[in-house]
Design a protein that fits this description.
- This protein is of the alpha/beta class and about 375 residues long.
- It folds into 2 domains: about 140 residues, 3-Layer(aba) Sandwich (Rossmann fold), CATH 3.40.50; about 160 residues, Histidine kinase-like ATPase, C-terminal domain (Heat Shock Protein 90, 2-Layer Sandwich).
- Helix content is about 50%, strand content about 20%.
- The strands form 3 sheets. It has a 5-stranded parallel beta sheet, with helices on both faces. A 5-stranded mixed beta sheet has the order 7-9-10-12-11.
- A hairpin with a 3-residue loop joins strand 11 and strand 12.
- The termini are far apart.
- The relative contact order is 0.07.
- The structure holds adenosine-5'-triphosphate and magnesium ion (MG).
- The site of adenosine-5'-triphosphate has 25 residues, from helix 6, helix 8 and helix 10.
- Adenosine-5'-triphosphate (ATP) binds next to helix 6, helix 8 and helix 10.
């Protein structure tokens, strides 16, 4: 149960006590809210007193009469706006002329309750205002969560960057002190390992660049014809050094929609990440099948592997930022856990969805479905 404070600023005692009576046992609930709202009523007989109570009690809602003995309602409203109070103001006045209404709305009043009002009229206004307050709170909360995610982001980032730097520093130190001999050949292994660490750091940086681009930049601007077959082949070439080591075979099934209308970077993000995962989490001698298809309404991309798979519980978390499945099989596979969260954001830009089917030890199929209206099929020769 959450309580909102309602401040009534009116010189008529009858109005103040009427509002208090009507709201005493009133509560508001909506299916999307997780708790009911009730109300505590505070009373002020003048604008000056209203401001004083507002400063002291920080109420959520103000019901404000315009015609007051000293300071007028619109002046109180001006004060509220100038001092950036979060309060929602509704004017209650029998002198609600068009002029006052326009001025008050410009100054941030959100509602009018004409006097005299019935209990029902007051309740429905309060209900509306409550909904607004609720949405405001939720938005604020989301901003706060955004901060938390940024913090988490920075701590994971520093950790992931520090580890390879320490390793490379150690190898260089070994060489500087000639610990393994005087010949370059003596250091083949530390050099190779340093190069690997640099490569994984580069991958992380590329992920981060994608992540910030997709998170913070306006999107769907660089739209052009994209040949998905080429994007798929490029993704396979990128991952091939690793795929050769693991003896992975590829199959491209291009059934329809070879070319579409999209931002090429977005398609590269989707293919690079899903192809790289299909190799990374595959078994030696495994297979990866990439399918590109569409019908009149949907573009359909699928990435099937014969790898380690995942349990149903893990399937729910892998699209979150920094989420990685930790077990015996994934222990020696490096990654930041950002790839799928980036893919999910990109797919959402096109109003699409990404899903996964998977069986432990058998393999996984990641499927991306995007409405054709977002990408249009560019038929060859047209
Ligand atoms: N094809 C797959 N088969 C099995 N597990 C997978 C597959 N793809 C992803 N996963 C699991 O989901 C997790 C998240 O994948 P994601 O691509 O987001 O991050 P990552 O591969 O760990 O790092 P990177 O940011 O380098 O891509 C992985 O750590 C892995 O545990
Ligand atoms: Mg990945």
């Amino acid at each position: 149960m959450a309580q909102l404070k309602v401040l009534v600023v009116d010189d008529e005692p009858g109005i103040r006590s009427g509002v208090a009576r009507i709201l005493r046992n009133f509560h508001v609930t909506y299916p999307f809210m997780d708790e009911d709202y009730t109300y505590e009523v505070l009373e002020a007989a003048t604008g000056e007193e209203g401001i004083e109570i507002m400063e002291r009690e920080n109420p959520d809602i103000m019901l404000l009469d315009n015609k007051l003995p000293g300071m007028q309602g619109v002046e109180v409203l001006e004060y509220v706006r100038r001092t950036n109070h979060e309060i929602i103001v509704a004017m209650i006045t029998s002198y609600a002329s068009v002029d006052i209404a326009v001025k008050a709305t410009n100054d941030g009043a959100t509602d009018f309750i004409p006097k005299p009002f019935t209990p029902q009229e007051l309740k429905s206004s309060i209900e509306q205002i409550t909904k607004q307050q609720y949405l405001k709170r939720i938005t604020h909360q989301l901003d706060e969560e955004g901060k938390k995610i940024r913090y988490q982001f920075l701590s994971v980032l520093s950790h992931e960057m520090k580890a390879p730097l320490n390793a490379i520093e150690g190898y260089l130190q070994m060489m500087k002190e000639r610990q393994l001999g005087d010949m370059v050949d003596d250091y083949a292994s530390p050099i190779e390992r340093s190069l690997q660490r640099i490569q994984s750091m580069r991958n992380l940086i590329m992920d981060l660049l994608d992540f910030t681009k997709v998170s913070f930049e306006k999107h769907l601007e660089n739209l052009q014809e994209v040949n998905l077959e080429e994007v798929a082949s490029a993704a396979i070439v990128t991952v091939s050094p690793y795929a050769i080591q693991k003896d992975i075979q590829f199959e491209n099934r291009i059934l329809n929609c070879r070319s579409i209308w999209a931002d090429p970077n977005d398609m590269e993000i989707i293919f690079n990440n899903l192809v790289s995962n299909a190799v990374k989490y595959n078994k030696t001698g495994g297979k990866v099948i990439v399918t590109i298809d569409c019908n009149d309404t949907e573009l359909f991309l699928s990435f099937e592997d014969t790898g380690i798979g995942m349990s149903p519980a893990d399937r729910d978390t892998i699209f979150d930022e920094f989420s990685r499945i930790k077990n015996e099989k994934t222990r020696n596979i490096s990654g930041s856990g950002l790839g799928l969260s980036i893919v999910k954001r990109v797919v959402a830009l096109y109003h699409g969805v990404i899903t996964v089917e998977s069986a432990l030890d058998k393999g996984s199929i990641f499927t991306v479905i995007i409405p054709m209206a977002q990408v249009q099929n560019i038929k060859d020769g047209l």
